Amino acid sequence: MTQALVHQKYKLAVVSGGKPVLPRVSNRSSSSKTVTCLTHDKANYIVPFNNQIKIYSIETRQCVKTIKFANNETLSKIFHSNEVMVSHISLGDLSDPEDEKYDKITVITNIGDIVVLNYKGKLIEEPKTWKFNELEVDEEVLKVFRNKDQVNVLTSKNKFSPSCSYELYQYSEKKLTSIKSYSNVVISCWSLNEQFLCVLSKDQEKKKTLYVDSIFGDNFHRSFPLPLSGNASGSSNTHFVNVMALDNSCMNLAIGFASGVINVINLEDLSSRILKWHIDSVLSLCFTSDGSYLLSGGWEKVLSFWQLSTNMQQFLPRLNGVIVDVDVVEDKYYSLSLQLAENQTNCDYQLLLLNSSDLTSRLCINGPLCVFRTMVKDVIQPMSAVNSKLSTSSNNLHKLRKKQQRKLLKRKRQDFTCNMEINPLSKHLYFPHISAVQVYDFYKNEQVSYQYLASGINNSMGKVRLELNLRDPMISEVKFTKDGKWMITSEIEYPPEDLLSSNDLVYVLKFWTMNSNSEWTLKTKVINPHGVHAPITEILMAPRVINNSYGCLTADNNGGLKYWSFNNVTKSWSLTRVSLPNVNHFSNSVALAWSLDGSLIFHAFDEKVSVLDFNTFSKLDNDSPSILNEITLDSAVQSLILVNDRNLIIATQTTLNSVNLLSYKVENSFDLYPFVNGVYKNGDLSRLISYDESSGRVALVVNQLPQGEKGKPALQYSSSVVVFDSDLTTKLGIFQHDEYISCIRWNYDTDFIFVDIQCRLGVVSTTTSTEMLDELNREGALDALQSNEFEAQLKKLSGGQRERDHAMGEIGEEDAVFEFINGDNSDKLINMNSFTSMFENIDNVQMDTLFDRVMRVIT
Amino acid sequence: MPSVSQPFRLTVLPKIASLNNFATQTSYLQVADTLTPLTNKINIGISGSAVSQYIVNPTPKLVYNLPIPSTNTVSSCDVAELAAKTEGEDPQEVWCYALVANKVFSLNTLIKPSVATASTSNFGETFENNKVDIKYKAVNVKVYPKRETIVAVLENGLIQTFDFQLKLLHSIDATYGEIFLVQHFTSESGLDFVCMLSELKDKKSCFKLFEVNELTAAIPVKELNSVIIEDCPLKDAKLFYQYGKIYRLCDAEIKVYNLPHFQLAQTINLPFISSNDVISFKAISTNRALLTAQNKIYLLDLLHNATLSERELSHVKTFQLLRTAVIPGNTSDNDKTFAIGVSTKHGANPVSTLDIINVDVGTGTLRDSMGKGFSPRGGKPHTLKSLLSPDNETETEEFDYSRIVEELEKVGSDSTRFDSVFFNKLNVKKDYYTDSDRFLNNEDFLEKVVGVIFDNFVSEYPRALTYLLTHPLFPLSHTKNLLKRFKEHPRLFKQAIVTCPNLPLDDLLHELFTVMNDELSLDLSLRILQDFNRDFIKSSIKKMSKVDTHNFINFVVDENADEERNRNKPRLFQLLSLVLDSVGLFALEDSTLIKLSSFIDDQVRVVQQNIELLNLLEDSTVARSSAGSQFNSSQTEEQVIKPYSVQYLDC
Prior knowledge:
The structure holds two protein chains of two kinds. Chain A is mainly beta.
């Protein structure tokens, strides 16, 4: 009975996270990537995310409104897949130009859906929505231009092919009429005031021609061949136009090449001048609205201002990422789109809103930054002059996407897990992000901080060209002591490639503590803690009873185990105990578990789990036959969890087992083989298993790639979260999610938090489910291990009584009484006999006792 | 490790029927609640006989005896030592005991010098003795030496405070009679408390907590908490208080209540005791308790529900605990505590003795409890269940294990029929373990099947055994002496070495030093290095009684063209060095030593040659490059040294 009750109490919801999207980033032919917008009063900034639209107040730098797609039926229908993106956000109601309420925006998606949303107050239940019906199958809305009452729509076809075709429509009375079309478009740009459009197209003979036209009306035409900069014999980068910009008066056209050169062409006389500063490909260009400055950005992580009248140059350096888009917003702000390109497994965008007068940052917007085990689908890397892991070059541009898709479909290993840890003290989520760690507040849904934990080139400047092949140090693991005051990280440093020493990775273990500025400061650093070439495969924090949890175990891939602890005298961490490795057996399937009372360590290595005594730091003596010091499983162990000091949950590549340590019997086992075998890298399954240390519940994520239509697999994952009780006898719930879940963790409360490959954060939550009787019992029994609750209560009782003695006869005793009436009421029913016992010996009883008796019966 | 030792005798009890009757003896023997692990003196009120003091060390001995009339029973007894008031004065002891004689109830005190040494005995001496009659039986007395008071709890629920001259100082009514448990304890902050449990009507009980204060306080004994709990009969229950918890054993079920609010925290079933047993149940350490049932003593961990230690006293019929020295159990003196009990022999006219058992309570951690749990779990063999709902799955298999074992047993020694049953019933497709056999994961079943094979087949084994040797869950219990068994079956022998998990190192080493076959030697060597770490291998070789390393050394040193062996040479050397380290060079025969040294010389020569060749090569290349530089220095320099590459922006 109780189980059914609990079953309903858990629920799964996607509540926060998400990442800002650059809707046009997948369309190579568009120079402008970002779609953002200021609200009517210019005080708020509207940013589309992959799961919602967020509105930030520029004044307070806080998110003031979110429009979540999932919360509205119409919106969730429109944004049904992650292929659908916001192509344009237009202020006001597009269908009703007379609307003067200034609280609406019109959102147009790339597949031609239009929806009118109110951004003030509660979102209306059924927003007004219609569709551009004239669009062909492959045709996507690229941009909507507005000039007073006129609305023109630019669409593109075949956006993934080397050259696509554009169509410009006039929109009136909910109908599109084509007015112009461009074919073989390589790249395009439009002026900020949306008056002029420039298109570069390449004909059959690979001759490139530029067309500049006015968008509204028919008053400006110009076409001329692309002027080639420099000598004709240069590499392909010198011809490859990566980005263009057109100024408002249609006087100047700036062309950025993959080689790093910017060519500014005066459209009056077609004279051109060359601006050289960028070392690698120019990624973004924009004129200010008066045309006096040209803004450019690229791999250097430096925003460059070119004063066109003087050729003087100014810089804004040390930005967080590669500048993939620059925009001028209403003259007052510069909007930058940065890509944190060092993460090659995902597109991590950060939107930066700068004040144009003093260049101070007004807003900095990004989602959780996850580093997945392998690259997820639809990752678009910026163009560079060279081809590297972090970038695409002009040569392999069009092959890449198809190759990636094919690879994803064919591969059996679908390991997109990522690492996430939750700090027990602040409850913030920690995402290791290459050489930094991102701290994310789940409840506020904002980044708290981003701190570099390892020194790499990327920390202060961007990498260009061949530097892109240098790998930054990578944070592989982040852990916290049980009180959340110490952070332990392990990182991997990569030597340069193509050297004899290229495989000599350096492993570093670092111990951090929080300083008063709420920044982590390094206290102890250990280089190659397990010897040269030996990686750290697992870190496990000590339970509270061991040195107040200021200790941790590290394991290598060779069966070795080390215990590090904080020394209160020297105020540093040091190696305290060692268990030697086996030199001839290597495996990355390593897992650790530690009993709550600190006495035993379970060390899984390959398919064996050995039981170690912590005090001797060696295997248990095998003297008596009843004590096993080794458990053999059917395949390599992926994850170990010790629940309530009683059940050892062992996940192998094929099965999930619960072993009762008191009887040494496998009590329950489940078949993981169809979901796990070969899918995850060794050890990564532990990211998908978590357990609630207070109630002993275990949550397991199963990711699946269902068969698409016609038996063909589509790249659309689904996942299930299974919540078990402490010994796996009952499933408390199975919950579905529509995307691949990368990591799940217990939030040190009653819930599990997960992150999916869309960087969305979800929660498997329960409100108050610990009413199940047996669970309560177990909890109470184990609590006694840690705290001396009894003494405290006794003191309170004794003190409370004393106080009451003083306050005899006064009103206000109830509080003191209530404090200790919190008794066990589990198996009690009130019936007509319940109160009879109260009246026995009534004449001699204290008032308190009588009151107590009443409370006992009724509570 | 936690253990219960064999009891030793303190004294033989007088031949009084009630003292030898196991149903009543515990209430007729009152041991003062003064035991700590270091206590040497034990005070016992023996009804109808005497109130006696014994010392335990160096040998159990009676040191003081205070005879009481044979009609009197001792209902409770306590002793406390008074601090010496002036220096040089002998410390004094206060004895307090309550007597019952034909519905006449009395409270008695005795103040005598406490003598530390066992040699002086003071029989016959008389000391200050007080007596006062009370209206009801005193179920518990407690001496507070510092305050010089005695707190007595009477049967009807009165809590009375006396001074040492037995003058009534204070009395408070706890309102309920039928008291079953009275326990005095001191909190960490130094306050004294007394809690009591009394039974009401209809299976209801009342828990009360009192604070014992200084006499000068307004209320010397004051009620702090009172809890009435239903369905908690005390009459047939065994109760004790320990570290903020009350344990109640009733009908083979222990209920644990958290104080001070008396909340039920845990229910533990004890499957190993039956209701007819003579049971006693006492505290011993945090979360641990001693339990006796008939003549068996159990040390239980009530947190992990495990039997830490168990002892059967075969020479007696029953053993019952009277008093224990309770220790926290997390310090180093876990092994020093003890308990006093009364044992009764078999027979119509049995003799009872007071016995002491020493107890090591262990650490109370999971380490002590591992594998010793007593809670029986569902008898159904576990099967591999599907993770999501069944219709989501492609394959699940369930086997009726017990029936298959029965069928296999019936087959007898016909290996083909055995194989057909085995492979068909278990749906095994291949001769070796594959992932689709993961449903065959019941260890008990595998153990039984291997057992059946070893029982029924002697010379020729069925194919099923080969399959089982490849199974990763091959039962551990059969791995010992497995290799010896396969001596005559080279195929199975090799299969076992290569795939069978959990082979013991001793067996492997034994085979390694005896096997003459090179191929098997190599397999054995690799297996040993794969499974065990160096220290363990070394210590195991050292432990072996007779090591003949001759074979093995020959095998490693032997020049051989076998590719596999050459590839694994470094590992073989590793093992060789481990073997030599553990047996010592001087244990080798001369011929072996000579062989070994010549082998090493050979190896060193090869290394030397290599180094020379390398030097030669290096010399020649350096010479050539330097020679070249003389002619065309600028060009070669540019080729050799190229620390930077400069790329120009091409435009």
